[in-house]
Amino acid sequence: RKEVEQDPGPFNVPEGATVAFNCTYSNSASQSFFWYRQDCRKEPKLLMSVYSSGNEDGRFTAQLNRASQYISLLIRDSKLSDSATYLCVVIVNAGKSTFGDGTTLTVKP
Amino acid sequence: DTGVSQDPRHKITKRGQNVTFRCDPISEHNRLYWYRQTLGQGPEFLTYFQNEAQLEKSRLLSDRFSAERPKGSFSTLEIQRTEQGDSAMYLCASSSSWDLGRNQPQHFGDGTRLSIL
To answer: A44 contacts in B (CB within 8 Å)?
Structure first.
């Protein structure tokens, strides 16, 4: 079993839809969590941090459930430009960062 | 541009050759990371520096791989006797230290795409 698991998708949704991704992790000592987006053949770019209380940035909402060991990302009112691969990363300590393999989202007109 | 810079962007070489990549992190960041990414996979952690000290190294990193960060600024990643399986995107990232009780997010460079013939 991988340390960080994501549903690879692809998720194909129409513009304006709401879509949610989950990411599960196995190490209960994990400290920090982030979501990145990665466009084809580009580097990962930070989307948002994930805080214990949950946090929102515009159309994006991230949540953490420590008891069940998963984080989630909700995208509301999807735009064509949201099409990308979404990667979660879990940090156990400063030197131990583990990425999921990503969930691919395609938003269609 | 004050982001993470990697050089070269692309490297094509024959099997058995040595290659070296360079990473210049964001200047105020003291943490530096190297990852490898292949198609359809997430970035795979290779090694981590805090300042000039290499504090973590993946068990997946064979002895053909070595990384340095001699003055706590730029870093190099060398692969000796390259193999076809080394073909991948090599990503460098940097971050600042623990702050407000949290690890700070990593910022990535554009990567070096390595192709082994």
So the answer is: 43, 91, 108
